Amino acid sequence: MIQEDDVFEALSNVIDPELGLDFVELGLVYGVEIDGSKVGITFTLTTPACPIGPQVSEQMQEFVGELPGVTEVTPNMVFTPAWTPDKMSEDAKFALGY
């Protein structure tokens, strides 16, 4: 059975190239939904104009798709609610000087 913690651990390999931190620490992953062997990921970007959306979706499919039992990964990019720096982990805030 696929565990949410394992999915988040896999998503920690998805790095924002500009900030050098992972999407989980940055608070960009809004949710994970597991339905049998299928995993849905709701995420956002720091700004709607950020050009890395397709790259991020591909990385999510790659890293989460490598988990045992996963047959399908569906990333869903949203912009509501809007991302703000307060969504970051304390470690990410420290690393970026917040």
Automatic annotation (TrEMBL):
Domain (MIP18 family-like): residue spans on this chain: 4-74
The record's listing under Pfam families reads: FeS_assembly_P
- Name of the protein described by the UniProt record: Metal-sulfur cluster assembly factor
- Where does this protein come from, organism-wise? Solirubrobacter phytolaccae
Q: What is the lineage of its organism?
A: Bacteria, Bacillati, Actinomycetota, Thermoleophilia, Solirubrobacterales
